[in-house]
Amino acid sequence: MIMATAYALPHTDVAASTSTALDVNFANVSRTFSTKKESRTVLRDVNLHINAGEVVVILGASGCGKSTLLRSVSGLDAPSTGIVSTGAHQVDGINELCAVAFQEPRLLPWRSVRENIALGLAPKTEAGAGAALINELLELTGLTHAAELRPREISGGMAQRVSLARALARRPGVLLLDEPFGALDALTRMNMQDLLLSIHASFPTTVLMVTHDVDEALNLADRIVVLGRTEDAPGATVVEDLALNAAHPRSHSAEDFIAHRAHLLRLLGVDPANH
Amino acid sequence: MSAPQLSTDRAGSQRPKKAGLGEVILRAPKWLLSLILPVALLGIWQFVTTTGIVAPWSLPTPGAVIAAAGELLEGGDLGKHIGISTQRVLLGFAIGSLLGLVFGALVGLSKLADALLSLSIGALRAVPSLAWVPLLVLWMKMGEDSKVTLIIIGAFFPVFTTVSLALRHVDAQLVEAARAFGFKGLKLLRTVQLPAVVPAIFSGLRLALAQAWLFLVAAELLGASMGLGFLLTDSQNNGRIDRLILTIILLAIFGKITDALISLAERWAIRRWT
Ligand SMILES: Nc1ncnc2c1ncn2[C@@H]1O[C@H](COP(=O)(O)OP(=O)(O)OP(=O)(O)O)[C@@H](O)[C@H]1O
Ligand SMILES: [Mg+2]
């Protein structure tokens, strides 16, 4: 409990090097993949501003470029034209201000849970402070009892929590989550959503998250951005930008929840009457 | 309805009986099972040589081989031969596998190094090992250098091949995740790529050690005044078939011992790094 509280206060010793939440800006971002035979435009003219500390969920059909958009923020991929920036920093190469959790946990099998989380620590983190931060994160993600286990000895849900803790160990200005709960069963998924909200409450960083699950988006997001095609041109762009103000936890039977859900499903090409 | 039932019943009752025989044998400790064949061979050897089925000049008795060992030990020669051969193997193995590791890492990680080196190294590997011997002897005379160099050549390739291949197949998602956290260059190599290929390194080392013994005998057969390979040619020239067989048995024993040691390390590495 004490640990978790310490984590919540951004100005304790441990958090001294904390980077504060950063805003993210996409200015005319396009991405075209070119092979010898053909070139394919995946993203076209994405213009989007995400405020510092916001939880933004990106929805879109499979293959429309959601991961590509996220990778342009982490610097794992670069847009063909346009500029991505986090805070005052214009992304060029790996962006050390953000941290990523992928759809798969991607843990090093030869390292314990604790050592895997340590991988996320910012370089030059002082050893004592790093160890304290990891203990807090273990506590926060409910992994203290599993700290010395190897990835193959823990469940999928636990592995995904390790991956989340590893990203948080970076104390990122922007947390990028690419379908982090996509491979989990429905129950574990709900627990992870609650965990994410409580993490965000204790560490209010900017969260940019991709999901396929409309309900998940409606549960978590301050804002939902939908990527999709428009008739006239190739590539996906922002086709909806929806602000949600309801407090957490959100009731699935609330009127605007149901209305938003139907609207989003229709945008994604699904008939809401069937779901 | 009842006919198929019967037949499954019969199959069911036969199965455990069949597996039973193997199971009973398998219940004995493994080391005991592995000794059955050598002991049986020894028995047959003893039998055919003492009863005269095989003439003593083509196969001496086990006793004669032991006597040859005693005789060589007493003169201090056997210790010298074994010592120098082991030294050559270990030295050549150490240098060869270290070079294999370095070049394997280069070719496995860098597309440039791959493009520049792969063809040449592949061509060198295609040269049959014995083809090097005359050249090495000419360049380095009959001394230690020529022999150790040949063993280095033998140990290099297995490590080079396994390491470069394994590095190329390191889980790209793991590498990407580490890159996203800012790992690059040597730090990425140390944190992700090298640990990921540790099991492959050990299987490469194991092959390299076997090659090292092979190349040792090749080197010593063709020009040496000491060592187990020399003992082979020397015994052949003097018609000492008891010493010949002794040397072969010694090579088997030392080869197996070093292999067992390295496989122990390999098993540890697989447990530790996967
Ligand atoms: N490195 C690449 N080279 C060529 N094409 C690529 C590359 N990366 C992605 N693409 C293409 O870009 C498109 C978008 O990929 P992306 O992974 O961003 O989709 P996504 O929206 O995340 O899909 P999903 O929901 O299935 O994860 C895909 O059609 C894919 O084929
Ligand atoms: Mg994706």
SS strand fraction of chain B: under 5%
Task: Please tell me the overall pLDDT of chain B.
Answer: 87
Fraction of residues in helix of chain A: 25-40%
Reported for the largest beta sheet of chain B, the result is: none
How big a fraction of the residues of chain A is strand?
Answer: 25-35%
CATH topology of chain A: Rossmann fold
Membrane topology (chain B): Multi-pass membrane protein
Keywords (chain B): Cell membrane, Membrane, Transmembrane, Transmembrane helix, Transport
Family (chain B): Belongs to the binding-protein-dependent transport system permease family.
Main location (chain B): membrane
What does this structure look like?
The complex is a heterodimer of chains A (275) and B (274). With 275 residues, chain A is α/β, with parallel strands linked by helices. Chain A has a single domain (2-111, 174-274), classed as 3-Layer(aba) Sandwich (Rossmann fold), CATH 3.40.50. Chain A is built from eight helices and ten strands. Chain A has a six-stranded mixed β-sheet with strand order 6-7-8-3-9-10, sandwiched between helices. In chain A, helix 1 (2-8) crosses helix 4 (127-140) and helix 4 runs antiparallel to helix 5 (156-169). The longest helix of chain A has 17 residues, at 186-202. Chain B is an all-alpha fold. Chain B has one domain (76-273): Orthogonal Bundle (MetI-like fold). Chain B contains eleven helices and no strands. In chain B, helix 4 runs parallel beside helix 7 (144-168). Chain B is flat and about 75 Å long. Residues 1-13 of chain B have low confidence and may be disordered. The chains are: A alpha/beta (275), B mainly alpha (274). At the A-B interface, loops of A face helix 8 and helix 9 of B. Magnesium ion binds at residues 66-67, 178 of chain A.
